[in-house]
Design goal:
The complex is a heterodimer of chains A (294) and B (566). Chain A is mainly alpha-helical and 294 residues long. Chain A has helices at 17-52, 54-60, 66-91, 95-126, 155-174, 181-194, 205-216, 224-257, 267-291, and strands at 135-136, 153-154. Chain A starts with 16 loop residues before the first helix and ends with a helix. Chain B has a two-stranded antiparallel sheet with strand order 1-2. In chain B, a hairpin with a 4-residue loop joins β1 and β2. At the A-B interface, α1 and α8 of A face α6, α7 and α8 of B. The complex binds copper (II) ion.
């Protein structure tokens, strides 16, 4: 309080603006650590499922549009550039450049979300969804086209029908047919039915046999839906971060339009910039992990 | 308390009892609930946490009362499941994890640094508001009939049960962020707001402990966040990642959960150890022994805490190799813990020990923590753990750590800083009696559970009619629980009645040499009239007892003693 040169943006409990700036910046870095740890949890889940069930990744990634994914990567990289440029403009008190750069960054962010919207729509159309919303794909080539309504088997139905189907399969097997379409369809379904009764649901040996069978008759692995669970949870959480990023950028956009930032005070621009780079960075990891599996 | 007969003169010139202090500077509900003052936030945290502790305590008493008889006394099995789940969830997420850092840490950390506030006062307030939201949500769960998963929310049962799992896990998620923000604030404050004269190795040990705790809070808590988020998404959207019925892996949930929840034990115990390090030196009237060892051992514990989580899963079908690695790593945690223990004992050696109320809790802490640590060893040993897993032996062990250690240090800290917080002295006789009652009651309650557990009594059961031999242990345990209850109520009475009847507290009633004792009692809003000079925080001889003041007065600047400079 006794400091004569206390500019209005420096809070009373700081000695000077350097101390405040350093504190703010360190706080943001620590916050980014927590963000990284949140995504690290998801990356761990990814690694564990990929190690135990590689086939679902090889199968599932075919349904993702590599072109759109690459385009989105490009868009986010561009937005990181414009954001960094904006921070520089703030440091140099170039208000106009700052506003332009922030606007461009937001434009890129919206572009990213729009493309994501089209990707998600395609998934909904194909029924390549998470968990029990997943629709069993009846296309043998796995992925070029979606299944039509009557052919589709939702995961929920699969669980319900499983008993009947597996009985069919047993009947077929008893009749001597080992590679009929019916029997191979039954393998994944019967797994879901058996799971609640005992440890066979997560028996690591089962998927191995399953893979064996799948390689010969039907390429769709039993746990294919889990790939899409991971896809949706990872891209969904990332998408939420993009939305939060847009809100933050918009806020500093409004403030900078009022002339709040200049070469002596630009902390918020700097911090939002850091956050935005992290959002970008996470996508840089998500893109190859999900889209470029083979 | 040695009286020299001569009058001792204070070198501090600021008034001891200024007319305007942080308590009476502004008035009204909003002036508290929306305050940015770290001291008021600390006080509000303390009140909220103690309210949650009362609630968790009620459930504890219900559990112990039910277990007094082998048959059903009050609850059906379903009701009993809900009671012990609420007891566990409330005590862990609302009491033990925020306890010392958020209540005592918030009050004392900036004072110990000679700073005006924490680095981000608004974030601090947000952290408290998130805590309140979490508390309200927990009460809502209670109103909806509670949940029956156990505080660990293990899948797949937590996916199937009809009780409000989403609500309680959302509460825990929000509380997690409250905890993250506190930790973030403390790290930045300690890094950036120390006075120039306070180097890292002149920091009070509580700050080292809070710093290590904050590291865990920042790195581990987000993993709990994503785990709970996945569980919520699992329940709402059926993604199947943790659900074996959809081909998912329920054990993955356990790994995620314990990756946070083992370090969470150190979020509880590290600040407790920090409090004890302060109190042992003050009440032994001696410089702390082995300062650097205690400081480094806090960091070591924080690091070790991340690599031992698998010891909760020895019976979950984890591979033998993993079991052996986790067992070995778990043993290694005992090294830094023992380092602290030996240093505290050596600090007391040849000290002139003042058995004031906080010191009684401190001594209990050491006794209890020794038992807590030693009974951890048979649980870390694979062969014995197979026998003891999920029995009352485990229940007793973690109550010795989480309640006997963390909570005792919390209560010790409350009694230690109470005069500074409120400006009043509480009745020592009543408080001391309460402290003995709580300490003895605690050991009666939980020591009897060690034999009970090794005889095979499983945790989370309330009917044991087939095993009449177990009843006597349960009855001893229940009697101990009632002793504790009376003790805690008595302690609460001593503290609360001091607000109206207690005599005015001096600047420094116990003779601690850390900076918070240099300000007025209670402190002024911006903490210090002049930024104090930081010397050796354990130079307790720079404070001498004065009969006139009824407390200790600072007779010379604290200096860094060459013997202790290490
Ligand atoms: Cu543990």
């Amino acid at each position: 309080m006794s400091h004569h040169d206390h500019p209005s943006h420096v809070h009373h409990h700081f000695e000077n603006e350097v101390q405040q700036f350093d504190s703010d910046k360190m706080g943001m870095w620590l916050f980014l650590v927590t963000e990284i740890m949140i995504f690290a949890g998801l990356f761990c889940a990814y690694i564990i499922y990929r190690t135990h069930n590689p086939e679902i990744f090889h199968y599932g990634h075919q349904f993702l549009d590599k072109q759109l994914g690459a385009l989105n990567t490009l868009i986010l990289l561009t937005s990181s550039l414009t954001m960094a440029w904006g921070v520089r403009a703030a440091q140099l008190s170039q208000k106009k450049t700052l506003l332009t750069m922030l606007a461009l960054t937001m434009l890129c962010a919206f572009g990213f979300l729009i493309i994501k919207y089209f990707e998600y729509s395609a998934k909904i159309h194909h029924g390549t969804l998470y968990g029990d919303r997943y629709v069993w794909q009846t296309d043998e080539h796995g992925g070029e086209h979606g299944a039509s309504g009557d052919e589709a088997h939702s995961m929920a139905e699969a669980v319900a029908d499983a008993q009947a189907v597996s009985e069919d399969a047993m009947a077929a097997e008893a009749a001597g047919g080992t590679s009929t379409m019916n029997a191979s369809m039954a393998v994944p379904s019967s797994q879901f039915a058996l799971a609640p009764e005992g440890p066979s649901g997560f028996d690591l040996n089962a998927p191995e046999e399953q893979k064996e069978a799948a390689a010969h008759s039907f390429p769709q692995p039993a746990k294919a839906h889990l790939f899409f669970s991971i896809y949706f949870i990872m891209t969904g959480l990332h998408g939420i971060h993009v939305v939060i990023g847009i809100i933050c950028i918009f806020t500093i956009f409004v403030f900078s339009a009022r002339g709040a930032y200049n070469s002596t005070y630009y902390t918020p621009v700097d911090l939002v910039g850091l956050y935005w780079h992290l959002v970008d960075l996470i996508w840089i990891y998500l893109f190859p992990l999900l889209y470029l599996v083979d | 308390m040695s009286s020299t007969g001569q009058t001792v003169k204070s070198i501090l010139t600021s008034p001891v009892h200024p007319e305007v202090n942080y308590l009476n500077a502004t008035k009204g509900f909003a002036s508290w609930f929306f305050t940015l003052d770290h001291k008021r936030i600390g006080i509000m945290y303390m009140c909220s946490i103690l309210t949650a502790f009362f609630l968790g305590g009620v459930f504890a008493m219900l559990i112990r009362t039910e277990l007094f008889t082998p048959g059903q006394l009050m609850f059906t099995s379903d009701q009993y499941n809900r009671v012990f789940t609420l007891h566990g969830a409330i005590m862990v997420f609302l009491v033990l994890i925020p306890g010392i850092p958020a209540a005592l840490g918030n009050f004392v950390l900036p004072l110990m640094l000679g700073a005006k506030d924490v680095a981000f006062p608004r974030l601090n307030l947000l952290s408290y508001h998130l805590y309140v939201i979490g508390l309200v949500m927990a009460l809502l769960v209670l109103g909806l009939g509670g949940i029956d998963t156990g505080w660990t929310f293990y899948t797949p049962y937590s996916i199937q049960t009809q009780t409000p799992v989403v609500l309680i896990t959302s509460a825990a998620f929000i509380l997690g962020f409250s905890s993250i923000f506190t930790g973030l604030n403390f790290i930045v404050t300690i890094h950036k707001m120390r006075p120039p004269s306070m180097t890292w190795f002149k920091m009070p040990l509580l700050l080292w402990a809070l710093y290590s705790t904050a590291l865990i809070q920042i790195v581990a808590t987000p993993v709990l966040g994503i785990t709970l988020l996945l569980l919520i998404v699992e329940r709402v959207m059926h993604i199947g990642i943790f659900n074996p019925a959809l081909g998912g892996d329920p054990v993955l949930f356990q790994h995620f959960f314990w990756f946070y929840s083992h370090p969470a034990v150190y979020i509880m115990i590290l600040p407790a150890m920090g409090v004890i390090s302060e109190l042992v030196s003050t009440f032994s009237r001696k410089h702390i022994f082995g300062y650097r060892f205690i400081a480094y051992s806090s960091i070591a514990i924080a690091i070790f805490s991340f690599i031992v989580w698998g010891h909760h899963m020895f019976t979950s079908g984890q591979s033998n190799l993993m079991n052996m690695v986790f067992s070995a790593l778990t043993f290694s945690v005992s090294i830094p813990s023992a380092v602290k223990m030996f240093n505290w004992l050596t600090t007391m050696y040849k000290g002139s020990i003042n058995l004031a109320t906080p010191m009684i809790y401190t001594l209990s802490f050491m006794f209890i923590f020794a038992i807590a640590g030693l009974t951890g060893l048979p649980l870390a040993t694979l062969a014995t753990d197979i026998h003891l897993h999920d029995t009352y032996f485990v229940v007793a062990h973690f109550h010795y750590t989480m309640m006997g250690s963390t909570l005792f240090a919390f209560v010790a800290g409350i009694h230690y800083w109470w005069p500074k917080m409120t400006g009043r002295m509480y009745n020592q006789k009543v408080a001391r009696f309460a402290a003995w009652l709580v300490s003895i009651g605690f050991n009666v309650t939980f020591f009897s559970q060690f034999p009970l557990g090794s005889l095979g009594m499983p945790r989370r059961y309330h009917l044991y009619e087939a095993m009449p031999d177990w009843q006597i242990y349960h009855q001893i345990s229940t009697i101990g629980a009632y002793m504790q209850m009376i003790g805690f109520l008595l302690a609460a009475y001593a503290l609360i009645s001091s607000l109206s009847k207690g005599k005015l507290a001096p600047r420094n009633p116990w003779g601690g040499a850390t900076l918070e004792w240099e300000t007025s009692t209670p402190p002024i809003t911006f903490n210090f009239e002049d930024t104090p000079d930081a010397g050796d925080p354990y130079d307790v001889e720079s404070w001498q007892w004065s009969d006139e003041e009824g407390g200790y007065v600072k007779v010379r600047p604290s200096v860094v003693d060459e013997d202790h400079a290490e």
